[in-house]
Amino acid sequence: MRFALLLLASAATYAETIFIQNATVYTVTKGTFKGSVLIEDGKIKQVGQNLAAPSGARIVDAAGMHLSPGIIDAHSHIAAGAGGINEGSVSVSSMVRIEDFVDPESVAIYRALAGGVTSANILHGSANAIGGQNRLIKMRWGKTGVEMLFDGGPPSIKFALGENPKRSGNPTPAPGGPTTVARYPATRMGVEDIYRQAFTEAKEYQKAWVDFKSGKSTVEPRRDLRLEPLVEIMEGKRLVHCHAYRGDEMLMMMRVAEEFGFRIATFQHVQEGYKIAKEMVEHGVGGSGFSDWWAYKMEVVDGIPYNMALMTSKGVMAAVNSDDAGLMRRLNTEAAKTMKYGGLTEDQALALITINPARHMKVDDRIGSIEVGKDADLVIWNKPPLSSYAVPQKVYIDGSLYFDRDTDVSSRIAKEARKKALEEKAKAQQIPPQPKKDSAPQGGPQSDEVR
Amino acid sequence: MKFANLLFLAAPIFAQEAFVLRNVTIHPVTAPEIAGGSISVANGKIVEYGAKVAAAKNVKVIDGKGLHVYPGMINCATLMGISEVTSVRESNDTNEIGEFVPQVRAVIAFNPDSEHVPVTRVNGITSVVTMPASLTEGRGAGGAAQSILRGQAAVVHMDGWNWEDMGINRNAGLLMRFPQIVTARVSAFEGATAAAIPFADAKKIYDAELKKVDNFFDAARRYQTAKLAKAADFKPNVQYEAMLPLLEGKAPLLVPAERERTIREVIAFAKKQKVKLILLDVQKPGKSIDLIKENNIPVVVGKPTNLPLDEDDPYDAAYSLPGQLYKAGIKFAFGTYDNQFARNLPFEAAFAVAYGLPYEAAMKALTIDAAEIFGVGNVTGSLDKGKSADFVVTDGDPLEVKTQVKMLFINGKNVALDNRQTRLYEKYNSRK
Amino acid sequence: MKQFLLFISLAMFSLAQTPVTVAIRNAKLVTISGPVIAKGTVVLRNGLIEEASENATVPDGAWVIEGDGLTVYPGLIDSISNIGIAPPAPTGPVTGAITATALAPPAPPARGPEDRPRTTSWERAADKFRSNDPRIESARNAGFTSAVIFPTTGIFAGQGAVVNLAGDNPSKMIIESPAGQYMTLTGGGGAGGARGFPSSGMGVYAYVRQIFIDLDYYERTKAAYQANPSGKQRPAYDRALEGVKESGRLLMPATSKVEMERVIKLASELKMPFVLYGVHEGYRAASVLKQANASVLISAKWPTRPPTADPEAEEPLRTLELRESAASTPVTLNKEGVKFAFYSDGQTPAEFLKGVRLAVTRGLSHDDAVKAMTLSAAEIHGVSNRLGSIEKGKIANLVVTKGDLLTEKPAIQYVFVDGMHYVPTADGAPTPTAPQGTGRRPR
Question: Is any Cβ of chain C less than 8 angstroms from the Cβ of A2?
């Protein structure tokens, strides 16, 4: 209603026509060539080697530069910290929504933008087997939380397997800390059980509504925000992105999903995806993970940097993600590692951070490649995007310029000056700490009471 | 396949065997590059390199057509050999108990069969500094004070049979956690943290801790004097004995110091105690850059890929810091402060280059500067005659991620490029 | 101790005079609801304002106060307070404070919304209110004649009450109950589940949503059952839902612009009137609040750098900007036409008024500032037909000063509550309040 209107209003403001010319264009899906891209109404209008700039368009000369689609991070937890990321108190927290807490003023958004990221799926944490509802955002720095939300694609939810959900149930008490009540489950066996229990309950809930709506039952069920998303999952309306490391647990997850008639959209981290690539292909699940993380806990001892290349060569739709505000800023070099480890081509490597994550989230009709009709989410780099030395120069979202390195650098002096002025003013106003008088009680409301 | 071939190639060459690598572009780092050059190795040492290299008859010749040779790189901050799986306590020998344990030595806990060794070295890292503690500044999780003098770091070759033949500088410095003034962070948006400690109180704790450190150093110095004087009542003491290399200026103090105040205080402390100093994990030196330069203190810079420490810092603050240190004339090297990402050392340096550090300076920081800072400049870090034959042969710029390492030599041994990860790759690649 | 307090309260109310008809003649009347009457008369009888105008007749036998040089204001209202229902906030750092709840045996952790965690929506401030809180007198001495008091612990903390700040019978001091539901929206422990659901901000939001879904379902089910109970299963009584329903208005916290947007979005789903409280970053959010047609309660405890902070600790520009501009929120909202009132946020009356005066130095007019502690407060809390202005028929709560009320040392001459005259203190000056810089937690 009101927010939808706001969104429309903002959509109307990006109407500038932009012609980016003389760039090396990495379309990802349709090859790489020297050419131009025309942006109109926030969309890619034309892409080609011999385009002419229409009159009235703003010309951006990218001679010597490289143009890629905006990077998509399929696994991030930035800009939602105020919401807690994890609702870890229960094993099924499907009622909670990252969307409620998207913080448009988190500097992590800007930093990721400066690394060429234009979209990110902000995921619930991995403390519990069935986590909360994720939210895909665009990094529209300067806009409101609602305006950050990606307007399209199916909703999704986080699942988590292995050490995290079971560890949350068996926390190691801090010395002297409060005693904690153990939360089921404590093993991988129990994690599987959580899914069986939850979806059995959700099936009952689904049936109750069907019966009520068809008139078979006159008892109106109580709406349950926890079970509704689970029904959506079974009905194929909500994607499951499942945190998982080991092959065995992923296999379990696929079988449980099949038992309840749905498919897992992606395994996140998927460090042992290479071990079960065949089964993943059969199930139709994507694999979205780190390029080279390993050894930080027991379940990633078999994490190998060849994972992406192996999954790709065996037919799994693979993607590289960050799960980290720092790493998020350099997903291009993370993707390049798959060329080093396993020999993916440049296009294959780029796809891991653009079109493939878009496919995982079923938004590849909108983002992930430089194609006519898609959102004009683009990055201009000074070097080939998979080079270690590539620095994003300009980043566009919906055809609007959201990051410009020159502007960033030139605005630093003014920002520092403003900060300095405020700091000095604050210092001048700060009441100096009063010297402590020995055990003299301070005044305040207490003195009122004593009087 | 790939790895197997390399293995085959590697097999006939023994560590002590002499060989000549021909037809390579040599990047000595300390001298201009030489196209179509050769490098000759005997007894694990470099005999010479150049456009024309004379080779004795019957010396093995390796053709490196199209390939590039660089000195092996040194990762100046790792937990190599003493930490295997971060979250599994039993696989970690990183943090000893006790406030002052200068006598404990990382080198003797080095597990030569740690899987991190072969995984890390295949990216051209031929030596590492392994630290006897995790390297975060300040207090550990939970607020409990960790040990202050934490033990001795070591420079270790990334190939060998055991720590005796791998350790090339067994006492590369004494790692210290410098006391910190810790007050809780207060956000104007979220109100005060309940546990906020007033600055004055935090300062008192800090002063007391620092006093304790000074007392320990003073006691160690009295021990030194008594020992030199062969005093009648002199009693040997393992703890103080371990302080002697530091007090004699033979080993430096290694201190993580992220920010300006810590750096300032650490430098003042080192001057007062007259000890050599290497600053670690420098991230936001601010005005202390001048102080570092004035006192000629070498630095192991914080990871360039770190996030900026504060919200208002420029987004590229960490990327661009090595460039700033270089401009200020400060000698520095790189480290990854962990094992998991130790292999990414050259890519860390690449970010510094992308954001302003000259390429040549980055290469020096990865090799010769690192070696000199940690006292092994006469052993490794360049291709100069007589040094250990530690070099890497690639198909291109080692700072570019996609570059492949084709051969790796440590102590003149052609080291196999396989590891657990390549074996898992081979195994599951063969699954139909 | 109890006896001691009793003694104090008796002593206090002995200062009140027997009710008589009062006429304040030829005074400046700052009516707030209408234009200032430069020279007018206000007549108080039976606890009510009988008349207030230029030509009001002075009834026979009335106590006449010659108002030359005097200014009459409506009595001030503290829009959120715990006066009379909680001990004064402790001074100094709260480190290690042991509260009564910490000593109570812990409740088992909640497993979901169905356990109604951190909810006491049925509790009424009116039922807990006691008249012997010594803060009542110090507030009154500073010109505060009413307060809106709330239980403040929990997601649905409980129902507020508008109370008059004079009297010895709590029941007679209550003006309105319930007056809104006080809410907090902060999460708990995060990943660890030890303290039960909800452990996160997201969980709190989900819980609030489920409560309103349940409320709707509850009411329909209950109505259907009551219409025809025969053959139907009896719906369970749910005090949490009853409590939320009764309160009629939600007070929801929001300090930053982002929080305001977030809370407004949530509140707009709930179909119950809402009021935001906190609102320090309102200077950036005037249009957001205006668009949402939101009324707000502004904490007059402006953020400051704690004097005990590390002098070298760098603070984000956002924090510095907030500190610089928070006190400009009232004037900004006033220009945009957003309705707002002030609350003390745990400060002493003197600190509270000092905070309000800072807002005046940022451009808010004196009388608009008074309005934010009188009529606007009454409007926001739904009692403007009784309180908040000098109008015929309203409750006779007045403050009479020499000169402006919002000065550093206001010369308060008379305070009337329910038409009763209270003598501030023997020398006519307000009760001395706490020295500056104490009693506040650092921000």
Answer: yes
Q: What CATH code is carried by the domain that includes residue B1?
A: 2.30.40.10
Instruction: State how far the Cα of A214 lies from the Cα of A219, in Å rounded to an integer.
Output: 11
Question: Which residues of C fall within a CB distance of 8 Å from B189?
Answer: 255-256, 259, 281, 318-319, 322
B312–A contact, CB cutoff 8 A: yes
In the block, residue with structure tokens 């090339």 = B168
Of C198, C262, C292, the CB nearest to A89: C198
Which two three-digit tokens encode residue B212? 């304790």
Burial zone of A212 (CB within 10 Å; 0-12 exposed, 13-18 middle, 19+ buried):
middle
Domain locations in chain A as residue ranges? 1-70+368-420, 71-366
Residues B385 and B352 in one domain: no
For residue B88, give the nearest of A114, A174, A298 by CB distance: A298
For residue B219, what is the domain's CATH number?
3.20.20.140
**ipTM metric:** 0.93
Domains and CATH numbers, chain C: 75-387 (3.20.20.140)
Chains contacting chain A through 3 or more C-beta pairs under 8 A: B, C
At B261 the pLDDT is 97
Which partners does chain B have (≥3 C-beta pairs < 8 Å)? A, C
CATH superfamily of the domain spanning A71-366: Metal-dependent hydrolases (3.20.20.140)
Q: Looking at the 3D structure of chain B, how many domains does it have?
A: 2
B191: chain A residues, CB-CB within 8 Å: none
For tokens 């997850």, name the residue. A253
Of the partner residues B192, B199, B311, the one whose CB lies closest to the CB of residue C311: B199
B252 with B352, same domain: the answer is yes
Rounded Cα distance between B218 and C359, Å, is 57
The pLDDT value recorded for residue A9 is: 42
Question: A-chain residues within 8 Å CB-CB of B366?
Answer: none
Lowest mean pLDDT among A430-434, B25-29, B338-342, B368-372: A430-434
Q: Which residue among A85, A422, A430 places its CB closest to the CB of C324?
A: A422
Helix B260-273 / helix B199-228 crossing angle, nearest 10 deg: 30
Rounded to whole angstroms, how far apart are CA atoms B45 and B15? 10
| Residues of the domain holding B369 | 73-380
Q: What is the pLDDT of residue C193?
A: 54
The more confidently predicted of residues C160 and C89 is: C160
Looking at the structure, tell me whether residues B240 and B326 fall in a common domain. Answer: yes
Size of interface A-C (CB pairs under 8 A): 207
Angstroms from A309 CA to nearest CA on chain C? 33
Chain C interface mutation, best of B182, B183, B189, highest count of C Cβ atoms under 10 Å: B189
Residues B300 and B424 in one domain: no
List the 271-300 stretch of C: residues with Cβ below 8 A of A: 291-292
C307 with A430: Cβ contact below 8 A? yes
The answer to whether residues B279 and B387 belong to one domain is no
| Residue in chain B nearest C322 by alpha carbon | B188
Whether B158 and B291 map to the same domain: the answer is yes
Long-range (24+ apart) CB contacts under 8 A made by C103-111 are C108/A181, C108/C196, C109/A89, C109/A181, C109/C193, C109/C194, C109/C195, C109/C196, C109/C197, C110/A89, C110/C196, C110/C197, C110/C198, C111/A89, C111/A90, C111/C196, C111/C197
C227 C-beta neighbours (distance < 10 Å), count: 8
pLDDT for A258: 98
| Together in a domain, B167 and B226 | yes
The model's pLDDT over A255-290, given as tens digits with 9 standing for 90+, comes to 999 999 999 999 999 999 999 999 999 999 999 999
Which of the listed residues B345, B362, B380 is the one where a domain comes to its end? B380
Q: For the residues B250-277, what does the mean pLDDT come to?
A: 97
CATH number of A1-70+368-420: 2.30.40.10
Residues of A in contact with C189 (CB under 8 A): 88-89
What number is the average pLDDT over the span C358-367? Answer: 98
